[in-house]
Design a protein that fits this description.
With about 100 residues, this protein is an alpha+beta fold. The chain contains 4 helices and 4 strands. The protein has a domain of about 70 residues. The strands form 2 sheets. The chain has a two-stranded antiparallel ribbon with strand order 1-3.
Length: about 100
Amino acid sequence: MDSSRKNNSNSLDFGCPHLGHWEDSQTASTFANRAHYCFRVSSPQKPSLDYQGDYCITGKYRQCVVFRCGDDLKAITDVFGSVNLGERIRLRLKSWQSQGCENDV
């Protein structure tokens, strides 16, 4: 059984298209894996194994706040925990420049 998949239009819809391995962002395992990164954000982050099992590798990925909101600071800290100060400032400035995602949730 193949334990990875390519994120393309021919892939099965088992998980998030933004989940991938650092060395190949278009490939993800079909199980929670410490090698996974979330590429939905501009600075890719590692979702926890529990979070991957609940959202990333399931059809529930569409409910993930990062999938829906991307670089929204609140979304990132809710899913990945704290971010460094430089990234926090960059994301805050970016959110001020846009409408923000909280209205979409």
